[in-house]
Design goal:
The complex is a heterodimer of chains A (about 260) and B (about 400). Chain A has helices spanning about 5-15, 30-40, 60-75, 80-90, 105-110, 110-120, 135-145, 165, 190-205, 215-225, 235-245, 245-260, and strands at about 20-25, 45-50, 95-100, 125-130, 150, 150-155, 175, 210, 230. Chain A is α/β, with parallel strands linked by helices. Chain A has a single domain (about 5-260), classed as Alpha-Beta Barrel (TIM Barrel). Chain A has a nine-stranded parallel sheet with strand order 5-4-3-2-1-9-8-7-6. In chain A, strand 6, helix 8 (about 165) and strand 7 form a beta-alpha-beta unit. Chain A is globular. The mean pLDDT of chain A is about 95. Chain B is α/β, with parallel strands linked by helices and about 400 residues long. Chain B has 17 helices and 14 strands. Chain B has helices spanning about 30-40, 45-60, 70-75, 95-105, 120-135, 145-150, 150-160, 175-185, 205-210, 215-225, 240-250, 275-280, 320-325, 335-350, 355-360, 360-370, 390-395, and strands at about 15, 20, 65, 80-85, 110-115, 135-140, 160-165, 190-195, 235-240, 260-265, 280-285, 290-295, 330-335, 375-380. In chain B, the strands form three sheets. Chain B has a six-stranded mixed sheet with strand order 3-4-14-9-10-13, with helices on both faces. In chain B, a hairpin with a 2-residue loop joins strand 1 and strand 2 (about 20). In chain B, helix 4 runs parallel beside helix 5 (about 120-135). The model of chain B is unreliable at about 1-5 (pLDDT under 50).
Amino acid sequence: MTRIDQTFARLKAAKQSGFVAYIMGGDPSHASSLELMKTLPSAGVDIIELGMPFTDPAADGPVIELAGLRALKSGTTVTTVLDMAADFRKTNDTTPIILMGYANPIHHMGYGKFAAAAKAAGVDGAIIVDLPPEEDAELRAEFERHDLALIRLATPTTDAARLPKVVANTNGFVYYVSVAGITGKALGAEKSVANAVERIRKAAGLPVVVGFGIKTPQQAEQVARSADAVVVGSAIVDVYHKDGHETALELTRRLSAAAHK
Amino acid sequence: MSNTPDNSPDENGRFGTFGGRYVAETLMPPILALQEAYEKARADKSFWTEFDNFAQHYVGRPSPLYFAERLTQHGGGAKIYLKREDLNHTGAHKINNVLGQLLLAKRMGKKRIIAETGAGQHGVATATMAARLGMDCIVFMGAVDIERQKPNVFRMKLLGAEVRPVTSGTSTLKDAMNDALRDWVTHASETFYCIGTVAGPHPYPEMVREFQSIIGREAKAPIMKAEARLPDAVVACIGGGSNALGIFHEFTPDKDVRLIGVEAAGRGIDTGLHAASLTGGSPGILHGNRTYLLQDQHGQIKDAHSISAGLDYPGIGPEHSYLHEIGRAEYVSCTDDEAAQAFQLCTKLEGIIPALESAHAVPRALDLAKELGEDGLIIMNMSGRGDKDVNTIANLMRVEV
């Protein structure tokens, strides 16, 4: 059983929704973001999404974009983010690590080399934002070879006709983007999110995690009523940047407690 | 594979291994809807009747194919003809594409038009057609470009468009495209994204090429009439590459016609400060397509550098990458200094002020004229006029305007 499957099995047994935290690798430095990463599980984080920075993050809002630019400035590369994962694994063998980023840096490294290095670093899967089902076959084959999950995104624009294509040949979980837009903006309406989660869970036969636009414990609790897990990124990244590690952890604790209710 | 006679991409939008649809899932449904609407429109005679009508009476087509006698004398070799896209309404080839896309937007019932712009020529063209068709228009433009293209910014505002300054990244064309994509993903249902070049996710590269291919058709017929033969070479400047593909496309099946694209070498390819994706880049994925890009050893996008805002882009249309790899087209480059000199030369010799973008093609056309000799025949695409660049040149010449 993979770490992802184990995590969702544990949550299901506890009748809880999970909490997923996104942080940007290397923001503002390798050491400090690694320090933050290591403390996330103790703040109730069930799955860690680890951002790989890119110069041109066209699906992200300003918070994640600026975090990525800070990370690039501190010398972050795909390899150094994988080093973070490997370091984290020395003391934690249970929390799944999902890399999140854009195609070009890993395309440049080579999909095969990337998949092998990610597996070796103890990574569990990845979300590559600009690889829709039409373009992910090559990377998916490499991920299958290394038993890694290539997580697909479903969105409010993914209609009934398209959904089967999105959930075909996927594993781990499905990430539902609550609102058509970029990261860090508004949250989709509760009812439409709940309906979408139900529809996708049925079609995919996999857990559905919901992200984009969730900033407060109240919102996390609301989304957790339908979702198998709730993702918060921009809010944590923003607080970490402005107020530092302790305040970011405090927010994370409140968010995870709300999701676990 | 693109081995059909008309170089069509395959059903996944691939020209060889280039092109595709590298966008977030949120944009896939709008892109598929656009493709469907485009396929329907291009098969509909009434769409082209409307296109031709606007092209003739509003844009002022056909634009002349003009024998540049004094430039030819200066080159001392082959005859040089200029395809005068600078004479189009709004002053550049950009309007051809915008006309097609906005007529398509009208058919799709979309009234909110967004566009990215570098030099401002595509922004002005989009604002113009949007005004004419009664549509809302928002143009994303890098803050750096706004500074160096002030007259075009004011023109867009006069035309009723909103110009949104983009301050992310390097504040130039690539960042304007990022912000346009971010807007599109947020407002996809009511918005039509009018991309200004032969790049972006499928079907844009093919669609923009089709709307621009009128340039090549209008060059071929008159050259046959004037010279009773095909040219030896067709030369055009390249940023994203829409004016080049527009004039190349009609000639791609004519294997004896050399197709020559001129990239912006900025301060010189060796300095690393340039915008020559094919000459100095490698394949990668950006803005929805796989193509040649300027990138570092970690796959991060490098800043492009060019005196010309319209060429200041770290990528190139995927079909150019394909034509480069199969060797059908040749790609060379021209530095800032060469382009600035050619700008003045062309103005003095022909009384034609070229856009700084188009001026990049002049030195390579002159080199080629010498190489081919007096029996040679060249068509150069004069893709736009240079009124907008007068301040940049004045600064270089240290003249107060």
